[in-house]
Amino acid sequence: MELLVHKIVMGITVAMLSVTQCHGQGLTPHSCRFEDAREGQTAECNVDEMVFSVCAAAENLNACGGHTTRIECCKVNQGPLSSSSCITIPEDSGDMATCPTSMFMRGACSSHFNPMCDEKSHSIKCCDYKLNNSPLYQVNPTVEGTSGNFVDCPDRKTAAAMCASVGRPACTDDSYTLLLCAYPDLFFIA
Predict the structure, then answer these.
(1) Which residues share a beta bridge with 87?
(2) Residue 21's pLDDT is what?
(3) Smallest Cα–Cα separation from 104: which of 85, 88, 84, 127?
(4) Residue 167, class by beta-carbon neighbours within 10 Å (0-12 exposed, 13-18 middle, 19+ buried)?
(5) For residue 181, what are the CA distances in angstroms to 9, 41, 103?
(6) What residue range is the signal peptide (predicted)?
(7) Which of 5, 67, 114, 130 could join 36 via S-S bond, C-beta 3.0 to 4.6 A?
C-alpha cells in the first residue's frame, strides 16, 4: 500500500512539473504596421498580430493622421501568434474598456464628438491569444498615457485595455487616450 501511495504522489509531482509557467517574458514586436479606421469603425489587427500602440482622435481631427482611430499591429519575434474567441467591450468617454486577464486587444474603435462605437465613446476587440499554440495571459499591467492622443505600450508589453474620449480630454485632465499595457505571459505543457 505504501508503495502505491508513493507512486501516486510521484505521478502527481511529475504531472505538476510538466506544466511550466514563464513569467514576465514579454514580446518583441516586428513587422509592425498601422491600421486606421473612421469614426465608429474598428481598426483591427490580423489574427497573428497584437496591438502595441493606439491613437484615438476625439476632438483633434488631425491627431491620428486624419483618422479617428489608429493602432499599431505587430507580429512578434518569439514565434507564431494566433488569436480567436474575440469579444467587443464598449465603454463611455473617460472610462477604461478592459479585456479579461486571459485576453489582449486586437482592435479599437473611437469617436470624435458623439458616441459612435456600439453607442459608446469607444470599444475594444479582445481576443484569446496563443504563442506557439500556448495560451497567453496578462502579467504586471500598468496604465500608460501622454498628454494627448497617441499612446505606446512600454518595451515588450502589449495593449489590454483602452480609455478614450469624446470631444475634450476625459481620461485625465489632459489625456484623450490611456492604455493598460501588460506583459503577455505564457502557460505551456512541457
Answers:
(1) 126
(2) 41
(3) 127
(4) middle
(5) 40, 22, 12
(6) 1-24
(7) 67
The answer to whether residues 57 and 67 touch, using CB atoms and an 8 Å cutoff, is yes
Q: Which amino acid is at 186?
A: L
Contact of 171 with 177, CB cutoff 8 Å = yes
Residue in this structure with the C-alpha cell 495593449, named with its chain if needed: 159
Each residue of 116-165: pLDDT tens digit? 999 999 999 999 999 999 999 999 999 999 888 999 999 999 999 999 99
Average predicted confidence (pLDDT) for the chain: 88
Alpha-carbon distance of 12 to 126, in angstroms, equals: 35
CB 141, CB 104: distance < 8 Å? no
| Grid cell locating 97 | 474598456
The CB-side HSE value for 111 (13 A sphere, CA atoms) comes to 22
Taking 50 as the pLDDT cut, the residues of the chain under it are 3-23, 189-190
Distance CA 134, CA 107 (A): 21
Domain coordinates in residue numbering, the chain: 24-189
What grid cell was written down for 39? 469614426
Report the DSSP beta bridge partners of residue 150.
55
